[in-house]
Fold this protein.
Amino acid sequence: MSDPILIVGAGQAGLQAADALRAGGHDGAVQLIGSESHAPYHRPPLSKSYLLGETARTQLTIRSAEALEKKDIDFLPGVQVVGLDRAAQRVELADGRRLPYRALCLATGARVRTLALPGSELAGRHVLRTVDDAQALATALAAAQHVVVIGGGFIGLEVAAVARRLGKSVVVLEAADRLMARAVAPQISAFHAQLHTERGVQVVCAAQVVRISGGGGRVGGVAVADGREFAADLVIEAVGILPNDELARAAGLECERGIVVDDCSRTQDPAVVAAGDCTARRLPDGRLQRLESVQNAVEQGRAAAAALLGQPKPFAAHPWFWSDQYDVKLQMAGLSAGHDRVVVRGEPVQRSFSAFYFRADRLIAVDSVNRPTEHLAARKLLDQGITPSDEQAADGAFALASLLA
Ligand code: FAD
């Protein structure tokens, strides 16, 4: 019997690769190895409905161990891969076992970045990546009064919204001069700053956190560089993630802010593909693109499986992402960086609008607030390379879908 296709990492990308191998007709052995003790689960609700208590633990599961078994996918939970020997085509596990592979998919995801701050060791400081983190945070939130969130990105803001809905006093400290600055345009940042402020969150931008203070071994506050200190009995650090690319790096695969892959999820080793948050994709113009999203994990997982099946299929769709804060659904498609004009459709004051970003004569991105149907049409326009005129984009009565092929 030939060696299995081995997938390291049982998250969204790893699961997708396994599913796509079976869907693509691969009937040989597939092993899915995950260091967490859980079957693959959805992470997005962890900072949203699950943290709020509106989604049950069972609803997080994407695929149960039994369902994996039915597809003849050999799932190994709670198993850490610690080494990769590409010449011998095998991996080494933490317990010393060695597993051979005929092809390998690295889907090791990412871990939270933490700040090296005085006071980081104090109890009451939390991060959020796994369901275990979310469970610990939910328990701590229930008992907390004063919550300080370090980091005004998507996850920090979603947690801030949940904490406010639970009646806590909440401060968000963001180092940049606006919220979600890495991902959205200033108009969307300003809208969300106002949204949180209206709901009672103290949003502080350009805040350089210098220290977590406390007493009796517990957090008591967070100090920023200008001398201000914010009281806290719970501190959440949400300052981004780092790709888990160490296995690949140590095995001599090209890594730069992630495992470098092409648009078919291939590394430079024909026997190794990689997918999801652990990767950085080399674009045709040579730039590297890092995406941290469900869509990217799913599409790269599919592309990785296709490459292993000898049917490479580039992942070409525009990136998309969403975030839920209070009753506001923000959906983003494309990348707005580098736009030279923005056309707004709808009414920000009514919490229902879209921002269309153009560069020269091309539509490059669309962000929508509480406009899911319009957003779907706009996403299709992006994928089909169709650019509405400024007037069509601005006119709420104009059916964008009528432009679609
Ligand atoms: P992961 O889900 O991180 O899975 C990788 C798995 O590999 C992990 O289980 C890890 O333990 C395991 N692993 C790592 N190293 C090893 C090893 N050496 N051996 C064995 N196993 C290993 N995206 C959106 O699009 N929209 C959202 O609203 C959204 N909200 C989010 C909210 C939160 C709180 C979080 C944490 C993420 C959110 N994301 C969202 C991001 C999205 O969930 C991720 O981009 C996606 O889950 C990445 O999937 P992945 O499979 O690449 O990585």
